[in-house]
Specification:
The complex is a heterodimer of chains A (111) and B (174). Chain A has 111 residues and is mostly helical. Chain A has five helices and no strands. The radius of gyration of chain A is 32 Å and the shape is rod-shaped. Chain B is an alpha+beta fold. Chain B is 40% helix and 20% strand. The chains are: A mainly alpha (111), B alpha+beta (174). The A-B interface holds A 16, 20, 23-24, 27, 30-31, 34-35, 37-39, 41-45, 62-67, 69-71, 73-75, 78, 81-82, 85-86, 94 and B 16, 20, 23-24, 27, 30-32, 34-42, 44-45, 48, 52, 55-56, 59, 61-63, 111, 146-151, 155, 157, 159, 173-174.
Chain lengths: 111, 174
Amino acid sequence: MLNKNKKAQVADSVTWIVATIVIIVLLVLFIFGASMLGSTRVVKGEFRESLLSKSYADKTDLFLVKSLITYYQLDEAGKKYLGKELKILDDKNYFEVNYTIKNQEFAGRLV
Amino acid sequence: MMLKKNKKGEKLISLYWFLVLTIIAGGIMIMVNVFYGAPYDIREMEASLLAEHVINCISPDGKMNSLLISPIGTRIEEFRDHFSDRCNLNFAGHQEWEAVEYYVQAKLYIRGEKNPFMNLTYGNQNWVPQCKEDKQLKGMPVCFEKKYYSYDSGKKVYQIEILTAVGKIKDNVK
């Protein structure tokens, strides 16, 4: 009877020791995970639209805006040259906003 | 006799439970601290904002700054020599001995010409070679490069290439 009890006690202790080790290993893994997630915190200026007013949520590209202002100040030859350059850049997805739509917006404002 | 033994065992188990709870609570505290203690990396945004600030100085409202290009289309060297003052740039760190963490460069090209008409630079040039590398590692500065077009009073077209670099590795990278 005593022998049996000892065996049971040993088995119980081993279960607890293994459980403790599993808990510690899991915690270490979670800490590692938290550390990895922590290092990915990069702010790129892209926020949820629901958090912003519409005027802020509307994206713009200042570089494209200035180029388009220049485009509409030029004569026909200048427009031809710059239009071609801007189209090449647009084909490479250079701008943060849609070039065609922005261009139409500008043209609409000037008419 | 048997009852006494069980009480001892119960005490031991309670102590063990307390230890396990402490370990888990400590682990959660470490996790929260590690996650929320990590800084936000805002350098990409900073580099882009710096570039926008500079282009607004070089060509406010899309037209070249009259302090940079004269009405007859010649460059005004005084603007280049006092680029930081003219564009309100101040890259001084919190402490005097700290290295400058920013760099800005603007190359102005006249339409069709290969050599820059003017080169405006300010800040720590040591960041530039790292901007040219393809692979971006943790300890490297964040760079922003973009070009746009502007015009002067004589409707001459300029292509302006902007390069900005932000170091600030300690403040932004864990």
